[in-house]
Protein 1
Amino acid sequence: MELHVKKFQDLTPEEMYGILKLRVDVFVVEQHCLAPELDDRDQEAIHVWITDEDGVQAYLRVLDKGVEHEKYHAIGRVLTSEAKRSAGYGRAVMEEGIRVLTETYGDVPIYLEAQTYAEGFYGKFGFKKISDEFILDGIPHYKMLRGVGADESEGASAFACEASAGVKFRIVEGLSQIQAEDVVRLLKTTYWASQRPAEKIEKSMRHSDCFGIYVDGEPHLVGFARVITDYATTFYLADVIIDESQRGNGLGKTLVSYILARPKYVGLRGILLTKDAHGLYEKYGFERQDGRFMSRSAIQPQD
């Protein structure tokens, strides 16, 4: 394991290629995040990465105040290759990133935007959550801060966002926020549950993790999905449905992204059944197995 620290202008083409390849492999390919990975901030960053005999294995970038956040210096693009997530590379690159930022800018607060499942990882380095959950590039995140001001909240609202078509919505989780009659209404429009009795739908909800979508201005649920899991090895994604009037707004993709990023499902194998949505689920790492059956290998969290 070898640590490297360089400013953008000092990177060789080979080093830049290795860094960008790992970022694309993790953020774009593995996490199925279809957002611009090259965001014009690399030129202003200090790049910190780890190599071994297999190439670049862990990375982050350090940013001056005003680049990522108007008030704080920041650390971003933190990642470890899938093959080295149990080898301590993530801890090592974070420790070095904090050291580099402090040595360069002084003992200042440090800001980052953490994927929800990694909150505990960053907590080990003194980062505290300062926002409610929000969607960034289709993935749930928290804003986190280390140092002075880390006990302050930015006052974010409950989980809410805007879909690709400009539709404002909120995702809810749990039976207390989902009306069974709304779910019955939605599922009765599907090919797989149109004949399912209401009492069976309600019973299935009581024994599942349930998720719903509400659109601003609409009193009733416009999207639903549920997960059945042992929380140890496998989860089954079922009954994913978006109201016909809201299809094409990106709500289905957002709901699936949100569910798959929940910390309680990270590290679990995923399975589902579908007749006509293979293309959608393939974007999230599911592979066709036999007919309607699809599965996704467990994606391990950062170490």
Protein 2
Amino acid sequence: MTVPFQQEIKDFSLETKRRRRRMVLSRIPECLSKKIVQTSFCYRKEDFEEAFSLLYKRYRQVGLIPEYSEKIFFTPYQALPNSRVCIARSLETNRVTSTATLVIDSPLGLPSDCLYKDIIDKLRKDRGLLAEFTCLAAEPDIFSRNGLFYVFRLLYKYAIKNGVTDIVISIHPKHTAFYELILLFERVGSLRYYPNLIDAPAYLERLDLIEVRKKYEEAYLSFDEGKTFFDFFFEKKFPEDIVEISRPKNMSPEIFKYFFLEKTKKFYSLEQDFQEFFTKEYLKNLLEEKRLKSLVSVLP
């Protein structure tokens, strides 16, 4: 049974009391105790379209981006083979209500390199394999916002399976308290501004995946709501976990072509290293397939 605030154990630290109060007021334990969304990685064109549409809608509503005729927003990092665009669908409406992307470090870097390359390079040297949470969005109701925990959970598992040691994220100042208090990220970068978004200040934060279970045990196992939170991330198993984490690919060449060359012309504005990589990864295969089909069509 949940203990009322006034009956909290006196030995709780001030930080633990703040953490518990924030969780209860945000209805986090309620949303994690009873499954409210179905999570998956995007692999169909329709999945990516819904994720990118939600990103556009929410980024426009908060004034981060200008209006685009295509009504979608995405970045080249979301098309990298080891990236995963994760979505949460409401069990009531089947609509995508929250999304986030995990980008695993590669020669093409991480999204936050444009702001914090000096700090991220040091983490690369001192730590191991980095990854980044990016392109987060959720509908404004509390169930959709809490649906992001389901997204984070699946992305955590994917990151750990692929040997990631640390996750970084660039966070707007008004959200840092949540990420630091609830998700236990640590601030590692000073305030800087994204050059490709409108009025977008951010702090760089880091989560140590090697020590994350120990940190969550220390932060959450002393109170009931915290145990629910800990179990959700580390003990609970969902039927889709194995299927999604083992999914072998991100975008197909056809999906890449649709978003980067047909729905938009984004490919032509990419930096040269991205253009060269994507041409080799996606477009050469399509061109070769088209050439083979044309040869077959003229055979007797």
